[in-house]
Amino acid sequence: MPRLGLRARVSTTVAVGALVLSTAIATLSYQFIRSSLLDERRIVVWRTAYYDASYVEARIGAPDTDYVQVLSSFNPGRGRTPVLVVAGTPYRLDVAGVDIPRDLAEMVEGGQAARQIVHTPQGPVMIIGIPLATTQYYEIVSLRELDNNLRQIGLVLTLVAGGVTLAAAALGWYTGRRALRPLASVAEAAEGIAAGDLNARLDPQAEPDLERLAASFNNMVDQLQQRIERDRRFAADVSHELRSPLQTLAAAAAVLERRQESLDARTADAARLVVEEVDRFQQLVTDLLEITRAESELDLSEVDVLALARDQCKRREIDPDVVTVLNREGDATWRADARRVEQILGNLLENAQRHGGGVVAVRLYQEGGYNVIEVDDDGPGVLPENRELIFRPFVRGSNAERRGDTDGAGLGLAIVARLAESHGGRATVLDRPGGGARFRVELGRQS
Amino acid sequence: MSGVLVIEDDDRIRRSLMMALEDEGYKVRGTATAEEGLAAHRAEPAEAVLVDLMLPGIDGFECVRQLRRDGDATIVVVSARDDTHDIVAALEAGADDYLVKPVAIKELSARIRAVRRRNRGGQSSPGTIVVGDLEIRADAGEVRLRGEPVPLTRTEFLLLCELGAHAGQVLSRQQLLQRVWEYEFGDERLVDVHVGRLRQKIEDDTASPRRLVTVRGLGYKLQR
Questions:
Q1: Which of A239, A315, A330 sits opposite B185 (nearest CB)?
Q2: Element (H, E) at A426
Q3: Per-residue pLDDT of chain B in tens (224 residues, 90 and over written 9)
């Protein structure tokens, strides 16, 4: 079972508490109201019954008294039925009324006034029995009205209890949201940081109860920022420290290369190896630096990507007319980091030339919040299982599928992916309709 | 003017660069500091000066500034720093080109050769081009705006000549790189920075240029 959210739990707890409390209060109130109403009714009923009994007794002295006549000579009021029992024979006005229960009759016959509540299909009735000199007088009083009243009160109390419970649940939900609102600002700050805004901080004063959270959150971001800054400095230092000796190597290798003929065969071989490896090393370091650069801030300007793409094509002896812009204006001036866009284009074109049988088309367009670069090639395409893999560093593809930078260090597409990510976008590879691969780079539009 | 001057404080880099450039057929001198380099250049101006940015004492930016003030030599910054800010700052200080280490010797040599060709061939430009109130006297190496001479560096001058020779036509950044710098391919920021510097000298309001305009998607154009 999925765990309930914090708000749902707060809300449920408050609602259950309110339910228990309001039910208890309603029950107690009901009991109290019921007993006081009953008591009041009882007193009235007794008093009237005694009065009626003395009235009846005064009129039944003669031996040939018509008991029914006597009973009908007074009006006991609505809902009251008088019954006179003379020597075990009940005289009553209603023919099919409520029978006097036996145990009550026995008590009254024994000379004791008594009452009993009997439930009938017509509602509850109270039967009062008063012993007279030789007879017993009973009055059957309907409690239906009282019962109806109590029923209504009960209904109202139940509704109130239910309402209170619902209100409590709503209150719990609402206060839950209010209580969690400061956490929303934490979430916002965290999202900002994830998106690269390392200056996002929480105000510890904003919510006293969350001061500790805010303080530790800010501390965490400070640490993160310092660490990123340290990494960046380290990368810059490494970059510088690697570039300088490489410059020496490159120049010295050039000297060796030029003098190959004057060297003996063995030394010339060794010199050639040095020259080749220096070249490779140089490419590797340049690529690595390119990847570390992707971590640094974007250097944004209005970039004429169409011109950039055409130039990149010319540079690689690709017909610049393969580049098309798909929007109405026919231009592709995007706010982006020119250097990175150039690098992305260059690497994609090189990849298509080297491993994809040549460039078929380059498309530039805008879609949603993205500027999109697509490069179609004429190669065998990329197997679905490799489509994510080829954007990882140092992946050169299997022998069956020589995709990725086999001649270089295998960083070309990884650089593309990193640079796309640095623009808040991504790099993917799809099938080109009609064969070949379609490399698609989405760059988040910058403001 | 002759040869190449290498101002580089790293002994090994300087020595290897000098060796490699000598192999390419240049007469090469080298100094470890900007002060020595500036003195050497004053004593005997070099055709091209390679300057490192991180130098003890006077730094590379200042060195470029002084070299530019002193004369017309082609200044190429060769630095390990690849930050755009550094590149733009160096170009704005007056460098003609900026190369990030490690530079392949072939490329370096190609650029210096291009500079040489430019310096020798630059004299045979057509006569005077008049574009509005701008007068470009290619043969005299002089530019006048409303009759007043405008001081331009060699690169700025060549850039303006190229744009002026095709006034009213759009030239792409790569075309300008090829024709002005004589580079087959290069960093387009070179063109942008030099256009920016040129605008400061020939435009009344650089924020909304009227003479040297940018044509989106294509390049730059000198308005007729």
A1: A315
A2: strand A426-431
A3: 568 999 999 999 999 999 999 998 899 999 999 999 999 999 999 989 999 998 999 999 999 999 988 877 889 999 988 777 888 889 888 888 888 888 888 888 888 887 767 666 554 456 788 888 888 887 777 888 888 888 888 788 889 988 988 888 889 888 888 888 877 777 777 888 889 888 988 888 888 888 888 887 678 999 88
Tokens 């308005």 — which residue?
Answer: B223
**ipTM confidence:** 0.77
CA distance B62 to B58: 6
* Residue A268, in any domain of the structure: yes
- In angstroms, the CA B202 to CA B125 distance is 21
A284 and A312 assigned to the same domain:
no
Report yes or no: A403 at the B interface, CB cutoff 8 Å: no
d(CA A433, nearest CA chain B) in Å: 29
- If asked whether residues A323 and A274 sit together in one domain, one would say no
What length is written for chain A? 447
Amino acid at A424: G
Total-model pTM = 0.58
Going from N- to C-terminal start, the domains of chain B cover: 4-121, 125-222
Q: Could you say which of B78, B174, B216 has the minimum Cβ distance to residue A333? A: B216
Q: Are A151 and A31 in contact (CB under 8 A)?
A: no
Partners of residue B23 in chain A, C-beta under 8 Å = 254-255, 258-259
Identify whether A190 is part of a domain: no
CATH number at residue A19: 3.30.450
**Tens-digit pLDDT profile for residues A21-78:** 999 999 999 999 999 988 888 898 889 888 888 888 888 877 777 888 888 777 767 7
User: Does A294 contact B at CB distance below 8 Å?
Assistant: no
**Fold type of domain B125-222:** Arc Repressor Mutant, subunit A (1.10.10)
Q: Is A156 at the interface with chain B, CB within 8 A?
A: no
User: How far from the centroid of its chain's Cα atoms is residue A290's Cα?
Assistant: 39
A289 part of a folded domain? yes
Are A247 and A356 found together in one domain? no
Q: Which residue of A has its CA nearest to B52?
A: A244
Best mutation target among B19, B81, B82 (most A Cβ atoms within 10 Å) is B82
Query: Cβ contacts (< 8 Å) between A309 and chain B: which residues?
Result: none
**Looking at domain B4-121, which CATH architecture does it have?**
3-Layer(aba) Sandwich (3.40)
What's the first-to-final CA gap in chain A, in angstroms? 44
